[in-house]
Write the structure tokens for this entry.
Amino acid sequence: MWPYIPVYQYILRRDLAESTTVKVSKETVRRLAALRRSLHAKSMDETIEILVRRRRKDALDAAFGSDRAKSRKFTEDDRLEDRS
């Protein structure tokens, strides 16, 4: 069983005074703190918000974007029309 400790208060909305405690492992706290520093976030809340936004963007890109790894540059041979 993982040793869980209550860590930071996660603010549900920045304009409200409501918050809740989220239990995470010490390792997760360490990794979030490192991410916070690398992202230049002001708080753990901001770090989590950045991660959530990035995940949402990645999911939308995967669902609606092109597959850039399989795409290649358009060439004249790709034309389906005859211009003669």
The chain has one domain: 4-64. The first helix runs from residue 26 to 39. The helical segments are 26-39, 44-64. Residues 2 and 23 are 11 Å apart (CA to CA).
